[in-house]
């Protein structure tokens, strides 16, 4: 651990110096950070040589996801979203459950050693998407707005949806393996969800009330207005965990509460700048650590079955459910293929992997499960990173030639 922080700081400084040149190219930030982690990790130079179960790694990943969940949820404006709700609703309401079902079925066939709860757990771990891995897809202005917003909303909300599913399935897997009793599993899940929701509601409401009141009375400095959402995310998380609740559910619910109250008070100012910047910084460090601590060792256990599942997870398991969710919308094939392909796996899956590693009750085939998840993330970082900019430009050109076709992409 002696040289880990200097190594990470050096990577951040080097990337900062070239970030403007990298933006918009097939070389994405997560690719660079993951590759740097592989180079600096214990299986290479050994400068970042810490255990995946180390408390500092767990804390880093959890804080990062909590900030991202709060930020994404705080921006969900149901009133504005109503006009563009069809695509994300189909992706979340139809595509997400079908993706989990497909991931489970493929895991049972391809990874036959996994018990059925472990196969289902793997499917849930790999269900949430991470728009940051294909940033051009959700930021390129020439892309159809509905497609950009649909993928962005899907990425922002499916993390929060998958957290309680992950907790439930993990408890089932532990109960099936005999690590904990079924009654204890049910109680654990109810506490995680219940206390998480409660802590999130309280933290979000308190933070929004403080911010709105202080701004009306002109008693808050603009800098400290930026700090309020960060403090709210941390408050929800740190209150939920000691109570036995899920800090991630608290962060997501807190963000929804905070954003809803702020908008209803006619306060249109965006105070999430510091929250977003902090999230980006922690996200970068997380991918460096992912490459060094998780991906490097996982590649040493790579098998054809693991690689096969990773490829299927990023293609068939994602793209077929997306296509099925579009039935009845008159959506053209290029749009279905584009939306289906861009379902990268990233931060949420990394955090789920670390949480399983932190559990004291080991699953019977935990190594196979986690290796598959980590390899899938690594493949996604590479494949979605390389394809994001060129495919986004190509699809934008097609949509520009067929504007009427795109108009039907989200109509039920």
UniProtKB/TrEMBL annotation:
Positions of transmembrane segments: 30-48, 91-114, 120-143, 193-212, 243-261, 281-300, 306-324, 336-357, 369-392
InterPro entries for the chain: Cation/H_exchanger_TM
Primary location: membrane
Keyword match Ribosomal protein: no
Bilayer topology annotation: Multi-pass membrane protein
Keyword Nucleotide-binding in record: no
Keywords (A to Z) from UniProt: Antiport, Ion transport, Membrane, Transmembrane, Transmembrane helix, Transport
Compartment(s) where it occurs, according to its Swiss-Prot or TrEMBL record: Cell membrane
Limits of the Cation/H+ exchanger transmembrane domain: 14-393
Organism superkingdom: Bacteria
Pfam families registered for this protein in UniProt: Na_H_Exchanger (PF00999)
PANTHER family: CNH1P (PTHR32507:SF8), NA(+)/H(+) ANTIPORTER 1 (PTHR32507)
Name of the protein: Sodium:proton antiporter
Natural source organism: Nocardia rhizosphaerihabitans
